[in-house]
Write a structure and sequence with these properties.
single chain; 40% helix; globular; Rossmann fold; four-stranded antiparallel sheet
Length: 216
C-alpha cells in the first residue's frame, strides 16, 4: 500500500455539486466513462488518506457510499495487513466493520494473500477489465508494466480529504461528512444489501427457469 498522493434516509454527507463522469475527456487510451462504470478501489490507500495518515475506515466508507449514490459499482482490494492496522486502533468499531464487510460481501471486499501487495492485484484487475482505479497512489513503480498509468492518467481517480470535507473532482463529487461513522456504515450496508438481494432474486429466477426447462 502506498499513500502517495438514491436513498430517502437522512444523507450522511452534504454534496456541494455533482456532474456526470461521462463528461470526462477521452484520449483513446481509457475505458468508457459513465456513472455506472465499475471501479477498482484501493482500500488501504483511502483508509490512510488525508494529512495525518492515521487509519480511519470511515474515509473509505464515505467514498463507497458516494460511488453507490451515483450508481457506480466497485470492487475494493485490501492489503493483508489491513486487519491488523485497524485492530491496533483504540476503538474496535473499524476492525469489526471491516471483518463484517469482508465476510458478508467477499466478491466486493477482497483482502489479498499475506506477503502480497494489494497494488499488484488492483492494477492487474484494472488492466484486465479496462477499469479505472480510485486511489491517491500514483503507482510510479508500475508504469513500465502498465503504460496507461502514464498515457491515460484519467484512469486514476484521486480523493482529497481536508478536515471533514472530501472531493472526488473526476466524478463531480464534493461534500462534507455530517454524521456519525455508524450512520455512514449503515448507509453503505443498505446499498450493499440491495445488491445482494438483487443477486439472490436473479439466481432464484434462473434456477426456476432451469427447473421448468428440465421438466418441459
Amino acid at each position: 500500500m502506498n499513500t502517495e498522493s438514491s436513498s430517502t434516509s437522512k444523507p450522511c454527507v452534504s454534496n456541494k455539486h455533482q456532474t456526470s463522469a461521462a463528461s470526462l475527456p477521452d484520449n483513446g487510451n481509457s475505458p468508457a466513462k459513465s456513472a455506472n462504470d465499475k471501479l477498482v478501489v484501493d482500500g488501504m490507500n483511502l483508509i490512510f488518506a488525508g494529512v495525518n495518515q492515521q487509519p480511519n475506515l470511515t474515509k473509505l466508507l464515505v467514498v463507497l457510499v458516494e460511488l453507490k449514490r451515483i450508481g457506480s459499482n466497485f470492487i475494493c482490494f485490501f492489503d493483508a495487513s489491513t486487519y491488523w492496522r485497524l485492530a491496533n486502533l483504540p476503538c474496535d468499531r473499524d476492525v469489526k466493520n471491516y471483518n463484517a464487510l469482508v465476510r458478508e460481501f467477499p466478491d466486493i471486499f477482497v483482502p489479498v494473500p499475506a506477503g502480497k501487495q494489494a497494488d499488484d492485484y488492483i492494477l492487474a484487475y484494472a488492466n484486465r477489465h479496462n477499469l479505472r482505479v480510485v486511489s491517491n497512489d500514483c503507482y510510479r513503480e508500475y508504469t513500465d508494466r502498465y503504460p496507461w498509468l502514464k498515457n491515460a492518467p484519467e484512469r486514476r481517480i484521486p480523493v482529497l480529504f481536508f478536515g471533514d470535507n472530501y472531493c472526488i473532482e473526476e466524478l463531480g463529487i464534493d461534500g462534507q461528512i455530517e454524521c456519525h461513522p455508524l450512520e455512514i456504515s449503515q448507509r453503505l450496508w443498505g446499498y450493499l444489501d440491495m445488491i445482494k438481494h438483487a443477486k439472490v432474486k436473479a439466481l432464484n429466477h434462473f434456477e426456476m427457469a432451469t427447473h421448468r426447462m428440465a421438466f418441459a
